[in-house]
Fold:
Amino acid sequence: MKGLAKKKAQPQPSAEQEEPKKSKRRAPRVVVDPRVMERSLAHVHRVLEERAPETPEEAQAILDELMASGEIPQVPPRSPLEQAQEIMYDAWEARGAKRAKLAREALKVSPDCADAYVLLAEETARTAQEAHDLFEQGVKAGERVLGARMFQEEAGNFWGILETRPYMRARAGLAWSLWAMGKRQEAIDHLWDLLRLNPNDNQGNRYALMAWLLATGDDAGARRLLDQYADDPSAGWAYNRAILLFRKVGDTAKSSRALDKALGMNPFVPLYLIGVKAMPSRMPGFVQPGGESEAIEYVGITWEVWFETPGALDWLVNALDRKIAALEAKVRR
Structure:
């Protein structure tokens, strides 16, 4: 495996190969859109609002009752927005062109349905500008629904409040579209503010933000973000820590230890970075810690940082070669 550095190349999606005829008989793997899961939560909220518990203990008793029954009552929508959101739950469960059709139906019911703009941006936009315009409409719709008081009084609690999630999704999408359009600082500002609204970062916005900070040379901001989420257990965060150290001190014992730790957590990352393994045409729907899906997601977001940091790929390849040599020596004993 020596000489891996010669194989460095920008990760490219692999061309989809024709499957053997026998595989065509297999049923396609169905990936459930995780946003569908919010339907049950929305119905639980409606039950609580209908029964109007006066204390946290009463609310918990209602929740315990629902859990014990194993069924959540289907409470009809009480407003055009709730009706539109129900249509969006159907849209996320649908396949193909029906998804966008349902999103358009939702907007006819309520133009304040931010999630409808999100789906249309994700699945119908042909350019970054078109995606930007749709996401921006979603952000404005979310702002109308939530109102100024929500942003003042609940900053730090967003996402935990179900009604904030469509807005959060639209704003994250807006940030990504801005990045694609080359408006990098605007994109970064949006993600910083999303983390202010939701420090728990249920959306995982910190991973793109870290890559963007490093790509724009804001290493001080990257270190601040790294410290903010110092307990992040992901391999990607370990690789971020290593590359940030390398950019600061170069190839030293300290940075090499950090890189060795990252390699131990996920050895697939360098294989995708240097082109030994081809990036897929689509990002994985789910991420397995330590697996190839985690490596693909990390490289898909962060490859630019490694390619634009002088000497980083050689440093990475040399560390991988050392690990392989150590393993080979252990096997020969």
Observations:
- Confidence is low (pLDDT under 50) at residues 1-10, 12-30.
- DSSP finds 15 helices and no strands in the chain.
- Residues 204-333 form one domain.
- Residues 128-153 form the longest helix (26 residues).
